[in-house]
Amino acid sequence: MSNFRTVTVKGRQFRVRAGDVLLDGALANGVEIPFDCRAGTCGTCMVHVSKGQTVCGETHTQGMIYACQARVVSDLDVEMEDVPEIDTSKARLVGLREVAPDIMELMIAPEKSISYLPGQYFKFTFNGYPARAYSPTASFDGRIGGRVIHLNIKRVRGGRVTTALGSGIRPGHRLRIQGPYGHAFLRPGGTGRLVLAGSGTGFAPIWAIAAMALRESRNRPMVIIAGAKKLPQLYMTPILAQLARLPNVTIIPTVEEGPVNHPSIRTGRIEPHMPTLTASDVVYACGSPRMVSALAGMVEKAGATFYADPFDPAPPEAPSGLIGRIKTLVARRPPEPEPSRDSGKGREASLDPFERALSLVPKDPIEGDLGLRRPEPRRSAAAERDHALSVVRERAALGDPTQLQERARRAAGQMASGHV
Questions:
Q1: Whole-angstrom Cα Rg for the chain
Q2: Cβ atoms of 89 and 112 closer than 8 Å
Q3: Which residue in 258, 252, 256 sits closest to 240, CA to CA?
């Protein structure tokens, strides 16, 4: 029996020895499979085996394997999803602000247009600092893509990059962007219920996915579970307050450590507050590996579809000399974040409920203006959070889906379009 196996990737055939790693065999034969961490974590190299068998490299999604871990044991037919090509671009930091204690929103302007799918991530290398992986998100008013990339980043004690935000790294700082990477991106055309779970700044890619999914289909059922360690770190409450107005969206904010005196916010980790899953659900999870692993078991038991982006800690850096410190790159996703009213009376009648809800969120002052200028005065983070929570509790009626749907129907009935 021959010791070689035939592998077909998107119509291209090559031969590898039995037991070889699929990714290594493909690259050695000039067949490109996108990859990043090579540790079976980031998901960039995930492929679908339509015929044949591998060992190791299993994922939580049926039929999908990590090419960097899977070993070939038979002839294989492998399919890959079309994703934007990995590229590098120079960029500039054009905006920086604190949205909650130790949580920063960064606005970055690349020199050229960058393509990515909601949920993917890039490596950002600020001049003079090591590379870090972060997921672009939609702006607070729901815009995604365009001329500015928005990031939500948590300051990590002792972090080389995050502790420099606002001091060594300020608006005007130059950087390099490489990517996109990752497999936990929104698949277009879906109709099943979306269940989106994000802990901490893992909410950033979750918000990007939600914003794009709602633009694609206003009526698609959606459950968004946003978790934080403590109440002040629940920085996404302005977004949640607006999403709670939509009849097809259920919002579940959670805080691990109390006390929490807001009836709309649940106490504890995300996992106990997940809805009952069915096989038709599509679940996205982003945040701590512990949370992602726990949700993976629940999804597998229900037979649902699962895409995840765990924030794994980076391996220790061992730079040598000044050049080594400047050029040090991390091989996997770091813990940083560990492991982002203009209703217009003349326009209001033409907006659907989603656009109307988002129109009430203050727009980012830097978006659409790449000049370095100061943001407009605004409420403090604590005051803004309390205001948003009061909206969630008193106006969105989160705990009562019937009231929420009735409110949305009344709002839609006041609009000329009447379309949700």
A1: 22
A2: yes
A3: 252
User: What distance in Å separates the CA atoms of residue 104 and residue 239, rounded to the nearest whole number?
Assistant: 16
Q: Tell me: pLDDT of 355 over 60.
A: no
List the one residue out of 115, 108, 111 whose CA is nearest residue 148.
Answer: 108
As given in the structure block, the two tokens for residue 7 are 């592998």
Q: In which order are the strands placed within the sheet that holds 64-66? A: 12-17, 4-9, 76-79, 46-51, 64-66
Three-state DSSP at 279 gives: coil
Asked whether residue 188 carries a pLDDT value surpassing 70, the answer given is: yes
CA 348 to chain centre: 30
In this predicted structure, what is the pLDDT of residue 386?
Answer: 57
Q: Which helix (H) or strand (E) holds 297?
A: helix 289-302
Residues 6+ apart with CB under 8 A from 256: 227, 228, 229, 230, 267, 268, 269
Q: Which residues on neighbouring strands pair with residue 225, listed in sequence order?
A: 197, 252
Question: Nearest to residue 38, comparing CAs of 332, 336, 338?
Answer: 332
Query: Once rounded to an integer, what is the mean pLDDT over residues 79-90?
Result: 93
Q: What is the tens place of the pLDDT at every residue in 366-389? A: 333 333 333 344 455 555 555 555
Full DSSP string of 108-173? EEESS-----TT-EEEEEETTS--EEE--B--TTS--STT-EEEEEE--TT-TTGGGBTTTB-TT-
Question: In degrees, to the nearest 5, what angle opens at C-alpha 148 toward C-alphas 147 and 149?
Answer: 130
10 contacts: CB under 8 Å, gap ≥ 6: 78, 79, 80
Distance separating alpha carbons of residues 329 and 186, to the nearest angstrom: 27
Residues in the chain: 420
Q: Any bridge partners for residue 252, and if so which?
A: 225
* Distances from the Cα of 246 to the Cα of 193, 284, 288, 359, angstroms: 15, 20, 28, 13
Question: 344: pLDDT confidence band, cut at 50, 70 and 90?
Answer: very low
Question: Do the beta carbons of residue 195 and residue 201 sit within 8 Å?
Answer: no
Mean pLDDT of 313-339: 41
Please say if the pLDDT value at position 85 is more than 70. Answer: yes
pLDDT tens digits, one per residue of 237-278: 999 998 999 999 999 999 998 777 788 899 999 999 999 999
